[in-house]
Amino acid sequence: MHDPLFVRATAITNGETVIVIAVDSLGINNDILGPGRDFTAEVRGRIQQQTGVPPTHVMIASSHTHSSPETGDVRPFPDQDWLATFLDRIVQAAREAVDSQRPVTATIGRGAVLPGTLAINRNGHVYPGDPPQDPEVTVVRFRGDEWSSVFYHFTTHPVYVQVQPFVSADFPGVTSAMLELNEPHCQAALFLPGAAGNQAPPPDPLTHDGARFDEENNPNFEVIRNLFAHTARMGMYLAQTALDVPGETELSGPVTAARRTVQVDSRDLPDRGPFEVELIDRRRALADAIGRNAPKAEIVGLTQLVQDIEETLVAIDRGTAPIDAEVQVLRIGGLALAGLPGEPFVELGFQLKEMSGDDRTVLPVGYANDYLGYLTYPEAWDTPVYEVSLGPWTRIGRFGGQQLTDTAKALVDELWTTPNE
Description:
It comes from Lentzea kristufekii. This is Neutral/alkaline non-lysosomal ceramidase N-terminal domain-containing protein. By secondary structure, the chain is an alpha/beta fold. The chain has 8 helices and 16 strands. Helix 1 packs parallel to helix 2, helix 3 crosses helix 4 and helix 5 packs antiparallel against helix 6.
């Protein structure tokens, strides 16, 4: 373990109570506990039992760090004891957040990192002009008597140190730790990820040519050390940017929530047969390499080829039935957190941000309450991008991402037109 993974939570009350939970996690697919169980539903049920806060008012947002256990259900998760502890910690954080509440003043402000430093559009090659990217940093502060909590919202993949031997929260772990040390009396600094489906950090010029593993597939610890150093630099830069964001506007007004489950179409899937044949061939080649004591690098490469086909079959075996997807919006005074259950493209995030005005700020929150893979805008399916390739990371079809975004828009408007406004 390079650095610890945390769950952080903040509870906000003004009449009603909402709980925002930020987890250092790749993403949590609700099927990981096995047939007939729902991870988020079980977490919310236990939180309601212990705090009285209803399920509609609890949001669980994952940071999407790639150096964490594979809870996105690309493959079956093998350690149910770990998952039970994981669930317990999330409930515990929510309960402690409710128990530690006190009067606060809430403020919101916006800043930005230098474009191209922490986030670029990784699919820039498919755009005729400048590809969309989102360098904005939004900071929400809750400050009371010698007590505070912070939300910081930013849009990029936490993948500085992915595919290496160590557990890490990536740059959000660095940023949260720095904010907790430097914001006065800060109890928790929660990272809220934006619409980062096609947003990623640019490569570090000092390390991008260095392989994380050598020709025998042993870790290259010098490169990995330098990657963690770059992660720390970038995390501290984001933290300093957030610290410099002033609390420009006081948040006031009702605290409430809304959610809606909608059915979205699955992606189209090919016949299973040809992939079964290919899997047999690849497994045979792997067994042959092991039998003749081939070099480790060759065995690892063949293992990866087997895993690629296995993951394709996972996608096919999920079938093409419509998928139930939850959209949730929390209203905290003049702030709307619009939770989407996967990796929305930045184009969808901008649609939600454009709903902001004098009376509200709307922020998309990805990886919220479920992990259903990439949520694309429709035209992305006509371009050669990784995110629509055949695999378990893209379950939802061409129009599902837009459908979920439109649902979030409708929920935002509903929360701003209800009688308690």
